[in-house]
Design a protein that fits this description.
By secondary structure, the protein is mostly helical. It contains 7 helices and no strands.
Length: 142
Amino acid sequence: MNQIPVEQVLGRYFSASAAGRHPATVERYGRVLAHLRFFLEQEGDSTVSADVGALLALERQFEPEGAFERLLGAEQLVYALPRFLSPPWLLPDFHDRLAQISLVSRLVQWLCSRELVDSRWHRHAVMQTRAAAEKARRRATT
C-alpha cells in the first residue's frame, strides 16, 4: 500500500468528483472540501495515535496549517472520516450536508477501490464510516 499524502488524495478525489458537474455542484463540493480540511486541522489529532499526534505537533511548529494533509495518508484519513460525519461537523445547509454525507461515503469506496486503503486491514474504520454516513443520512432526511 502506497501512502499518498492526504492533500493529494483529497485533491484527486474532489477533482474527479467535480468533473463535468454543474457549477453549483462544484461550488458545493468545494465547500465540503474546505470544511473537511478545517475539520482535519481541528480534530485530526484526536483520530491518530499519540506518536503521530506528537509528529503533527512538531510539524505545526514549522508550518501551522495543513500538517495532517501533508504528513498523513489515506489510512489515517479513513479513521478520521466517521467523526467528520458526526452532528457537530455536519454542514448547516441541507444540500451541503447531503453532499458532505454522499462525498464521504463515496470517498471511502474510492479509497478502497484504488487500494489506497486495504478494506480488509482497515475494515473497522471503513465500516464505521459507512455506518456514520447512513446515520447522518437518516438524520438529514428526518
